[in-house]
Amino acid sequence: MSAALDTGSAGPLLEVEHLTMRFGGLVAIDNVSFDAADREITAIIGPNGAGKTTVFNCLTGFYKPTEGRLALDRGGRPYLLERMEGHDIAHHAGVARTFQNVRLFGNMSVLENLLVAQHNTLMRASGYSVLGLFGVPSYRKAEREAIDLARFWLDRVNLTARADEPASSLPYGDQRRLEIARSMCTRPCLMCLDEPAAGLNPRESADLNRLITDIRDEHGIGILLIEHDMSVVMQISDHIIVLDYGRKISDGTPEQVRNDPAVIRAYLGEEEDEELPPEVAADVAADAAKSGPAGGEGA
Ligand SMILES: Nc1ncnc2c1ncn2[C@@H]1O[C@H](COP(=O)(O)OP(=O)(O)OP(=O)(O)O)[C@@H](O)[C@H]1O
Ligand SMILES: [Mg+2]
To answer: Which residues are CB-neighbours of 128 under 8 A, at least 6 positions away?
Structure first.
């Protein structure tokens, strides 16, 4: 079951090599390769149906890839995710995710949602038996640590005051942040966020961006981010992968990707220029005016 190998190396956190996922005749991902680094936000962008969520589903064991190698290096311990079951990927390799549509335990309290996320750690401490019920010291210690971690993340996402309320009673934006807190309670080395800002208002979205960049900076983990809002992507990503019809069409810094004609074509289509929203049209015009191999400024 454990796909941990024995060679330590200083490569990227995640190496995706020649990933292909077919559903019958449909090729949802077609020979995609990319790296994602520790302490970086790697955005995966692309039009609807491009295969973004499918990449996450392969990385987290929801789907077994048709082909490809998904190598994760957790602090010098390599894992081959394509050979592992989903629960081992979460608990041993340390890959956490959130979903395109919020998935919380709605009837449980906010705090309980964060404790359930640590179920595996607690089970281990209980010796996988009822010993935990009898207050074995190691279990009590693990339980205290689980509560401390949950409280830390509750505070971090400003939900301490609502700890005892059912998760389903939270406003949508709070549920989104609770999901992130829940995945952080599993102490991941790689967190996969599938459109975390979907449905948020601009202010909630700005708060969320700060939370995501703080997690990268303070907790030193790698973040894979699927996001449709280009202003967010360009602002907070360190590295961007662009998919279109299951293929990788661009890979680079925000600056490189923004100026890549293949990306502009995929997003805008070749004959639809007159229908561009004004701010996008202005960007395209500015990019075309530069038309050098590399642009010069940030943000
Ligand atoms: N379980 C499945 N069975 C069959 N087809 C699937 C399955 N999962 C995904 N697909 C197909 O794979 C393609 C990629 O889907 P995916 O959900 O990865 O796209 P996406 O880039 O996340 O799109 P969106 O931006 O709309 O969320 C789509 O054509 C989708 O219909
Ligand atoms: Mg998706």
So the answer is: none
